Amino acid sequence: GGNSVLGTNDPASSCQSNLEVIRMGAAWRAVRAANRTLRNVVLAVVDSGVDMTHPDLVNQFWRNPRDGSIGHNFLDDSSNVNDENGHGTHCAGIAGAQANNGIGIAGVANVQLMILKFMGSDGKGPLSGALRALDYAVSNGAAVSSHSYGSTFRSPIFEAAIANADAVGHVVVAAAGNDGLNLDQTPTYPCSFARTIPSMLCVAASTSATTSALSVATFSNVGSAVNIAAPGVNIISTYLSGSYARLSGTSMSTPHIAGVAALLATLGLGGQRITDSITRGRTADLSNSLGASSPGELDALNAVNIGLGQPTSPPRPSSAPTRVPGIVSVPFERSPVHRTPIVVSTSDGCELAGSVWTPQTFAPGAENVFVILVHPWGKLGGSHANMSSLARTLSERDDFQVYFSKGFNCITFDTRGVGRSTGSSTFTGHDEVKDVVAMANYGIENLVTKGGKAQFVLLGSSAGAAIAGSAAPLIDNCIALICIGYTLGHMARVMFGSHIPKLEKFTGPKLFIMGTKDCWTSVSQLVSFVEKLGSSAEYRLVDGAGHFELENSPERAGQIVDWAADFITKAIYHQRKEGEGL
């Protein structure tokens, strides 16, 4: 196990393409090659607390010399910083999980983590708690603090506190937020304070593949206050009960930056010297859907080299759109696809935000075929943004090789508790099955052309494939199921195993797509499962791909869409033939 690019032996670091993108392994090697005496640095994580016994974190905690605590709980004014939400544990792991200990993942920096809890199990907390946490961090010697939260309320007192921290060389790193907004028009705090505070960093989320950042994530806020971006989609990190999970958001991007800032502090840098090293070392500006001022992507190696006074290496290629086979690269507003926002009610009263993607020209006979794309459920950080590139490309297809020649209707949506959808996300994803059924019912009631009959294809990715598999036998006229990275490994079955018997009840055609370097399921496990399902199932393997790459990387997505399109069109063809009695 491990990751040869990063030089780590942690088994799940093979899934950490986010660290490969920012050249973290090379940055670590540059620090070692400098042969400097490194300072002991404390990084404060201001969040919902931490899993205090997580094996990948337990050796990384700072200890208060007065009472031995690892931080403070500002909700009940105690030293119990145990995490009841998971958000804080995830952020702490990104920044500072123990590397090269043979378990789990690798964190960005080998520093001491000060845990400051001001948010409860609901992920919310009082501004007064955040303010007191920052004061505690500065007073107790933390060089950097990571703030993955935000509010529209501008507090002059909080702004003054950050300015005071800046004055003593403390670096505040804050998340830009996940509303898809331009912060120049709709500020979010504390992030927007970065416009006037020299050493503060406001962090956007980037989508990233294995070699380069592609763009600012569609959910990420942008604006002139946002001065850096870091990977924020499908980031694997530590979670509750000693487990690991992948989450998406600027909350995940922020500890990447905070970790690099702390690494620079170990070299003796402080305050604005840290910020300048990070911002001067960033790549060219990333594109964003709002046309707003865009930040560059974090390049940890360049940041370290600048901090060491060494020359930087050439930046990675620009993120400007390039033509990749199977991917349409024109800006969306000029795309031959119409995207319509929808709101759908579930059987138990949740309101789900989604989109219908309608092609300019339908494949013959496919006007009433709807591909419902299912992302990993909310507890695992999924959102419809995970699936949008696949939806757009399936709708835009103009080079199908089998039977038909144009695109399909696609439906993407945020499951309950995600984005603007209401309700509460669940830990197992079983309630989210109702969300998929609700989308199918919406299609039947609102999208079918006159005299037609709806047919559905469910396409799920990772944990979303488990949801799709459970939903398929519940949906009338579900003609095919496509699972990208279905989770079959022994560890994955703890969370996802109860979905498997439900998938097995679906008798229609099933396609499983997986990377040969999937960290949750081995190729032999997939092959055995498909053979068990019999002639209704088949599989395709993406050589060299890890679990989290498949729906987010253009280099991978082109092949996936080709396979999916072929499979869907065959399913439609055979349904038509059966209907004709042939």
TrEMBL record:
Record keywords: Hydrolase, Protease, Serine protease, Zymogen
Catalyzed chemical reaction(s): Hydrolysis of proteins with broad specificity for peptide bonds, and a preference for a large uncharged residue in P1. Hydrolyzes peptide amides
Alphabetical list of InterPro entries matching this protein: AB_hydrolase_1 (IPR000073), AB_hydrolase_fold (IPR029058), Peptidase_S8/S53_dom (IPR000209), Peptidase_S8/S53_dom_sf (IPR036852), Peptidase_S8/S53_subtilisin (IPR051048), Peptidase_S8_His-AS (IPR022398), Peptidase_S8_Ser-AS (IPR023828), Peptidase_S8_subtilisin-rel (IPR015500)
EC assignment: 3.4.21.62
Domain AB hydrolase-1: 371-474
Similarity comment: family membership: Belongs to the peptidase S8 family.
The protein's name in its UniProt record: subtilisin
Organism, as annotated: Perkinsus olseni (Perkinsus atlanticus)
